[in-house]
């Protein structure tokens, strides 16, 4: 892109004014004084220091500053670079772990390619599905609690029919003596 841009300027052609942006990504295998994983730099015209070159950006990604675990990576680019950085050690990981990590990165990439409106619809659908599964879990927990209580009552009835004292039944089932005697 840089060569094309410069050759257009040298010919006096104004086509470059329509370029919406040029981004250079520098993946560095060393650390700089900047402690962040990612830093965005804007360019300034050195002949006119007050004039920024709009649409031009350099992004530096410092590989040594990537999190130690995939789960701690915060952004899609950090997750991608984590996978590339650790490709040699990944043979020890299970296939399902790798598939899960790669799928998560692919999902993030697909999400970032969506328009804002599509992202809003996506998150609304995701929240609706999460609420659905949360309600299933709540209903399941309530159902289990009812089943446990019903089992205690049935056990207490059987023990009572066998002539076991109410105090012993209470200790074995967790029911109160009053609940046992009411059966």
Would you summarize the structure shown here?
The chain is of the alpha+beta class and 183 residues long. Helix content is 52%, strand content 14%.
Shape: elongated
The main pleated sheet reads as: 3 strands, mixed
SSE pattern: HEEEHHHHH
Distance between the termini: 85 Å
Give the rounded overall mean pLDDT.
77
Strand content: 5-15%
What percent of residues adopt helix (DSSP H or I)?
A: 40-55%
Structural class: alpha+beta
Unreliable segments of 5+ consecutive residues: none
Strand order in the largest sheet: 1-3-2
Number of helices: 6
Radius of gyration: 32 Å
State the oligomer: single chain
Number of strands: 3
Overall description:
This protein is α+β, with helices and mostly antiparallel strands. Strands 1-3-2 form a 3-stranded mixed beta sheet, with no helix packed on it. A hairpin with a 7-residue loop joins strand 2 and strand 3. Helix 4 runs antiparallel to helix 5. It is elongated, with a radius of gyration of 32 Å. The N and C termini lie far apart (85 Å). The model has no long low-confidence stretch (mean pLDDT 77).
Main features:
alpha+beta, single chain, 183 residues, 3-stranded mixed sheet, elongated
SSE topology:
Elements: H1 2-10, E1 22-28, E2 38-44, E3 52-62, H2 76-85, H3 95-112, H4 116-161, H5 166-173, H6 177-181
Parallel strand pairs: 1-3
Antiparallel strand pairs: 2-3
Helix pairs in contact: 2-3, 4-5
């Amino acid at each position: 892109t840089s060569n094309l841009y410069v050759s257009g300027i040298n010919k006096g052609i104004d086509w470059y004014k329509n370029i919406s942006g040029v981004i250079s990504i520098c993946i560095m295998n060393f650390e700089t004084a900047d402690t962040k994983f990612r830093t965005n730099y804007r360019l300034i015209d050195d002949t006119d220091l007050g004039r920024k070159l709009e649409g031009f950006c350099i992004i530096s990604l410092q590989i040594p500053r990537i999190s130690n675990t995939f789960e701690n990576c915060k952004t899609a680019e950090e997750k991608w670079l984590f996978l590339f950085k650790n490709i040699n050690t990944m043979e020890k990981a299970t296939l399902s772990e790798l598939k899960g990590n790669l799928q998560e990165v692919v999902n993030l990439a697909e999400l970032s390619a969506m328009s804002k409106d599509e992202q809003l619809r996506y998150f609304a659908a995701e929240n609706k599905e999460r609420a659905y599964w949360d309600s299933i879990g709540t209903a399941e927990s309530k159902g289990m609690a009812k089943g446990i209580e019903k089992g205690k009552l049935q056990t207490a009835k059987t023990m009572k029919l066998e002539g076991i004292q109410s105090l012993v039944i209470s200790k074995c089932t967790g029911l109160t003596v009053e609940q046992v005697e009411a059966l």
